Amino acid sequence: MITHLLGPMIMHTNHQANKADDLALLGLMQLISPALPIGAFAWSQGLESALELGWVRNEQELGQWLEGVLDDGLSRCELPILARLQSCWAKGDSKGLAYWNEYLHANRETAELTDEDTRLGLALMRLLTSLAIAPKTSDGLPSSPGYVTVFAWAAHKRQIPVRQSILGFAWAWLENQLSVACKAMPLGHTAAQILTEQLRPKLVLAVDSALALPDNEIGPIMPGLALGSALHETQYSRLFRS
User: Fold this and answer.
1) Which of the following CATH numbers is that of domain 21-232: 1.10.4190.10, 3.30.1490.190, 3.40.50.300, 3.10.450.50?
2) From residue 25, how far is each of 20, 21, 28, 157 by CA, in Å?
3) How many C-beta neighbours within 10 Å does residue 182 have?
4) Over the stretch 11-51, which tens digit does the pLDDT of each residue have?
């Protein structure tokens, strides 16, 4: 009799949990969608310069470039900091938020990369304000929040698990970089999907690495990308912002 009564209660609890998981997943899909109106498509993050300078000349070299940026950049900087920022939002740790927001800002090696982070952060803040879910000072919002900081808030607000939020962030980065390549070099959409298939397991490994990285090892090691980003400002012809 007791088991018979508990059955509907357990089913109801499971349904509520599944519903919350579904809403979190949809919230993540919304955040990483190319249709999100924040202007991420306008930036190449050094890739356009790499193409112009002949560092990346074909599909194979593009895959190597992206894997290098993922291993020496995202997994060592944006992803571990995103995880820490989301944890700080959850705990209401305003000092931690200010620290990691500034730390990430200090790791932007060129004016172009700094401008991108600032502008995307402002754009995402405007969007979240329109959706009535923007963070406030009382939530611990640091001054001049960058894109990763605001993304971490949105992931926290949508109750997205940290691992999924940083995996989604990495996926959005990969999609954007392949979109850049499709516009700036002879790369078809099928070739882009082949690269996506090749790099998909690398995203999972990057997340594992990011979550295991201690604080004192956080920081990108990408002198080539930094140089390309700096040279992009004076590139003769550009499709993407500088």
Assistant:
1) 1.10.4190.10
2) 9, 6, 5, 12
3) 14
4) 555 666 677 889 999 999 999 998 999 999 898 999 999 99
